[in-house]
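Hi support team,

I'm opening this ticket because the web form for multi-chain structure prediction keeps timing out on my end. I have pasted the exact lines I submitted so you can reproduce it. The total is 1073 residues across two entries, so I didn't expect it to be a heavy job. Is there a limit I'm missing, or should I split the entries? Thanks in advance, R.K.
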Amino acid sequence: MLKILTLPCFLFIIRSSLASNLEHDGWANIKLEHCLVPSASPVFTERGNITIQSLRLGQAIVKQNPLTEQEKNQLRDLAAKNQFYQIRSTVVASDGAENTFLSTIKACMLAESELDDKLSVSLDYTGRVIGVTLLIASSSTCEGAFVPLSKLKQFTTHVYVRHSDVGPIPNTQSYIEKLEREKEARERGEVKDNRSILAKYWMYIVPVVILLMVSSMANPEAAAGNGGGAGR
Amino acid sequence: MTNLGHFITLCATILSAHAIYEDQVGKFDWKRSFIGKVKHAQFDTKRLIVTTHENIIASLSPKTGEIQWRQLMEDPQEHQPQLLHLDKDAVTVSGGKSRFYVRGWDAPTGSLLWEWPLVLDRPGDSFWLLQGDLLVHVLAIKGSHMEVTQFSVKTGEVRAKTRKIPETWVSGDKCVTANPYFVCVFNGQLFWLDVVNEGGRASSQPIQGGPDCNLLEFDGPKPAVLLVRQNSAKIVELGGAVLPHEVAPNAVSIGSSVFQLEANLDNLDKLVRVKSFDLVSGRESSVEIDYPLGLGGPYIVSGQCRGPACELLLSSTDHALTLVRLPEGRVSWTREEALSNIISVEFFELPVSDLEASIETEFTDNDVITMFTRRISTQTKQLVNLVSGQFGSTRDDFGLHRIIVVATAVGKLFGIDTLRNGSIVWTYRLPNVKPVMLLVQRTARHAPLPAQCVLLAQDVTTGGGVLFAFDPISGESRGLDRLSYRIKQAFVAPNEDEEHLKPVIVIGADDSVRVFPERGPKTVAYVYTIDQSLVQGYRLEPDGLKPVWNLNLGVCDLVGVSTRPVTERVHSQGRVLHDRSVHYKYVNPNLIALATLSEDPVHKSVLNVFLVDGVTGFVVYSTSHKKAKGPVHLVHSENWLVYTFFNERFRRTEIVATELYEGSIQSNSTVFSSFAISQLPEVKTESYILPANPVSMSVTLTERGITNKFLLVGTSSGSVVEIPWMLLQPRFADMPCGPEESCFPYMPEIAIPPEATINYNQTLARIRKIAVAPAKLESTSHVLVHGLDLFYTRVAPSKTFDLLKEDFDHRLIVLVLVGLVVASYVTKYLAAKKALRQAWK
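Hello R.K., no limit was hit. The queue was backed up. Here is the completed structure from your submission:
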């Protein structure tokens, strides 16, 4: 217990000279507390401690105690009654700023996942923690499975540091390049001709048609003779 | 190039079809123009020139009240009209603090004749006087001196150098002008000074009354002011006597007569009385006017008299403008100027006709006799309706006839008909409240139960919450609840009670929860509140509010919050890709989109956009744009978010589309739960340049969500353009994009063709918001654009695929059908005949 308490202090001394934003790569220390007894004014008890050494890389050291018998029973009761499991995380950043965040999940989901939970730490663009959320990876809510107490031993928490994306900008460069490529291709005559057959080959079609017309006009007797023959 | 060609053809087929034909103008759209609360008014022979608190000069027709012309000046937040003078041309002075504009307008046409600006070196209280072509500006520096400058009104040329007149009686807030004097009340004495003619000396006169008396302008035959004490006033002629008449503070003089309004309690039909007396002859008269019921308390703005016939222009506390003709006391016209500032809009379906309602209730009883009598009475009604041909305002098949309920900033509610050119069906005035929003408790679908709507408002004096329930179709009150506390958050719970009434849940500033109506069902809901940068999520349980999550967005300004429309339905669960596989959408109904602007020492100001799950507080996605400036507009629909902002680096408006996908497998496909997250949504983004300055943005909404989506963007130039969502939808980087995939190749600039303007040539002034509601016809959405003008139209993003065209030839179809039937019978007959003949052979 003593070890866990001294760790943040130790880190604080080392890193306090560094700025907290992402460019200088800050760190953060998260003290986790949870509430296992549902009440109007929840009482939080210590759950563990997480140190994110590098916010940029998102590496975290997770220190959590195994659950005591009493805690196991309390958690099982919470799950059985379909209550909510709440954590309170106190984040101390490298610039000394302290923030407290709440997060709530369904206790039965936590029990069914056998205490395999995920902690999402969301940062803003400067690298300041804006929220800490506890999640359970599952494609559905509780299935009602019975979880033996032996499976509720210790939290296996994965920490995910989630950075803010850099917003997109209109991609004019590649569009202009594309237009230029097409222009060049056209100039080189590589562009595919998608005109209709008539538009493309009119210079061949028109003489043929004229030839046909002229030939049929030059030989009217044959045509008339044929017609007369059929009539008879 | 081929791609571009495809793109143009696609554009042509999709976009050109949305323009309307010339003969369709005004067929399903209407526009109503407003001017705002009137500040100054001047009569001319043929027109009435007014300036308003919206910083507008307009000319109205004295006969009908219609706007002949209207000119918008600077932003009314900072600039206000200071002076209006109508001679041959109309002269206005408008501005605020230290910047003023002097303008001349041609009275018949409203064209600007001349204009010059005036910038003051120091702030103070400015007063203006106009005499001939001499404009006098008086800058009062409280308790010290005043600076008088004379300008030529047309050119702005300084006629006489600024005179500094050291007078300790200049008090600023208790000063008025009375041509040619500048008048102040100070220490129980009235002081005045001729500021037009140089060399004038300040005069003073003791007045009776304590320090609580005030001065008002009075445009009498002689230079005079109104000295107001509590609720009565005296006319003080400068250099003359205090007139013995006790007048109301709203007294106005026209010629030599003084007019004032009084409440008339003797006659309940005519609640207002105009009293007048002649200053010269002392003749008194009193006329009762049939002031329309439902309007607020009136006061006289201006008037004119021609012999015994007078016209008085009245304005009221609810910003209505009324012209009264004397001596008849008849109201010529009324303009509801409250509609120039709308806070909230809801669309309501009309109830079914009594007939249909009675059919629906026909089989509710088991008693045979009552059923029989009901049937008989229904059929008699049917017969009566058939004979009289009356159908009244009832629901139509396509849900195109709606009642638009609007709540205005002055606390007046209006019911507006979507057909009949936006005529006002009903009004309801709530004094001393500031509306916040309208909540729909019950629609008209549950006949015979009438629809019910609740206006959530704030009391102006106490700041406490006000809940006003009313029938949105008829405008009848269903009860008013005044709460003793402020409202922090309020919403309509989704579950209905046995009367199909959705309870309104109100969370007070002290986190107390109340349900209206109180017997309403208990609900579990998730609520969020935003206090500057702290976002707090609560779970609402029957025994109270419990905080469940919180976010701290840091030091920033919250510039936008957007949630999906409650009634929105997502028809298609995924997007079909070129290889016929489906990419499933991440459709989370609990998603909240937040936009903040924060100061940054390096990047000036940074726009942050967050997508937060409202149940767990999980930040699903966040992004930031550096060197970005407001205004920011957010639109959140289905699985996507669109926002616009101004990029300071490139000096252009950009529009960004963000789309969320689950991928090729759909997790929790049956029931969505925010708690079950199997994988993080895949985010696609794309950015574009928007060649317009957006002031408002909205998205079309249809009954079942099958129809394509259009973004509606109101621009500062007064047009509302539609942009197909398909144009903005982020492209998949490694996939072909062409007409076969129904995908537009990426273009960095969004083209806005003129035919995409849904209000065609009807420019809309100062657009504030665009309200959208689905019609019963899947293809169509109702759109109401409000700002200074009201514009209603219907849009059909995928064209009216579910309607026959107007020029559909019914006659030809009938003819062909009849012909076919006849032909088949004839051939049948002939065939039978032939068969008979064959048999006899």
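A quick check on our side: Residues 1-20, 223-232 of chain A have pLDDT under 50 and may be disordered. Let us know if the file doesn't open in your viewer.
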